[in-house]
Amino acid sequence: MIPLLYRIEHRQEEYPGTFTLQLSMAQGRAVADPEAGRPGQFNMLYAFGAGEVPISVSGPVSTDGALVHTIRTQGLVTRALQRLGQGEQLGVRGPFGCGWPLERIRGRDLLIIAGGLGLAPLRPVVYKLLQDEQGARRVRLFYGARRPQERLYRRELTQWAQSTELVQSVDHADSAWPGHIGVITDPLAAAQIDTGKALAFVCGPEIMMRFCIQTLIKKGLPESAIYLSMERNMKCATGHCGHCQWGPNFICKDGPVFCYRDIHSWLRIRAL
Ligand SMILES: Cc1cc2nc3c(=O)[nH]c(=O)nc-3n(C[C@H](O)[C@H](O)[C@H](O)COP(=O)(O)OP(=O)(O)OC[C@H]3O[C@@H](n4cnc5c(N)ncnc54)[C@H](O)[C@@H]3O)c2cc1C
Ligand code: FES
Predict the structure, then answer these.
(1) Which of 61, 95, 188, 239 has its CA 20 to 30 A from that of 23?
(2) What is the CATH superfamily name and number for domain 4-96?
(3) What is the largest CA-CA distance in the chain?
(4) What is the mean pLDDT of residues 152-177?
């Protein structure tokens, strides 16, 4: 429960209001656990004097204690984190929650579907796939954003496009934009999907996830082949305070990644 001190090694502005921090341990020793910070897990980041917020792991799994987090400025705590520069310190508790079911990828056609900041918790999955550790049969990344310049990791997206099938869609763009214009569900609906082999990992604003799930189900993908990452306010992150309760689930402990089959009845209740 006690945050460890971490030092900001590098700070990268992704676009105005959204930044990525590379952190190293300033105190304590890294635990040589190859499972530490699995793709899809999150840490509680503590801005001293402001408070703690849950933020997904957005970098490679590391055993030397290094961490990467991408943060959008929303309110009190994320604004305090935004003000921190290279060399400054923050507190970290974690990692918490269960991650993406990487063990299910082997031999499957993986559909990674991200909206806006939702690419952050999926980026470590892409890293794993690029190392070809998971044995996927085919990988497609569908990424939707508001504008071309409001996409995360733009340089990496260009690199990924060489080894992965990348479909990008933005809400607004000029004629120089080579990708789709509109919502990401349009190219998703048009895609050929082998429903017996496909597995979908979805992360983004809740409304975007609802529409993507609708599209996938309509195409015949079973509920058991769809996974999504949920967000709710958190305090303890360890399943004790009840702040993140969602139906019978605690998002911090039972999630944040859920199989759609297990939570579809809760997702149907708006504003739960
Ligand atoms: C498991 C998990 C993983 C997360 N991963 C990331 C991540 O990788 N990067 C990241 O930037 N954020 C992530 N978040 C969201 C992040 O925790 C919140 O943005 C943060 O807690 C806001 O705290 P704050 O004190 O800055 O804002 P607050 O003062 O709490 O809120 C300010 C305003 O922002 C609104 N707000 C708060 N949270 C959200 C939200 N999630 N979406 C939209 N509006 C919101 C509030 O309603 C309020 O109007 C994650 C959340 C969870 C539960
Ligand atoms: S944040 Fe306390 S129970 Fe989940």
Answers:
(1) 239
(2) Translation factors (2.40.30.10)
(3) 52
(4) 92
Beta bridge partners of 236: none
Closest CA to ligand 1's atom 35:
74
- Closest by CA to 222, choosing from 192, 256, 190, 261, is 261
Task: Check if 4-96 and 102-229 are the same fold.
Answer: no
Residue 239 φ/ψ region, left for φ over 0, alpha for ψ in the -120 to 50 degree band, beta for the rest: left
Q: Which ligand is the nearest neighbour of the Cα of 231?
A: 1
> What letter does residue 2 receive in the DSSP assignment?
P
Distance 7 CA to ligand 2 centre (A): 26
Over residues 28-42, the pLDDT tens digits come to 665 555 566 789 999
> How many A from CA of 98 to the centre of ligand 2?
14
User: Is 0.85 surpassed by the pTM of this model?
Assistant: yes
CATH of domain 102-229: 3.40.50.80
Q: What is the pLDDT of residue 135?
A: 86
Q: In angstroms, rounded to a whole number, what is the distance separating the alpha carbons of residues 232 and 251?
A: 7
Distance CA 64, CA 41 (A): 17
- Position 55 scores a pLDDT of 97
pLDDT at residue number 30: 57
Note whether 169 and 141 are within 8 A (CB).
no
Q: How much is the average pLDDT of 144-154?
A: 96
* Nearest-ligand number for the alpha carbon of 251: 2
pLDDT surpasses 90 at 171: yes
What is the distance between the alpha carbons of residues 71 and 79, in angstroms, rounded to a whole number?
Answer: 10
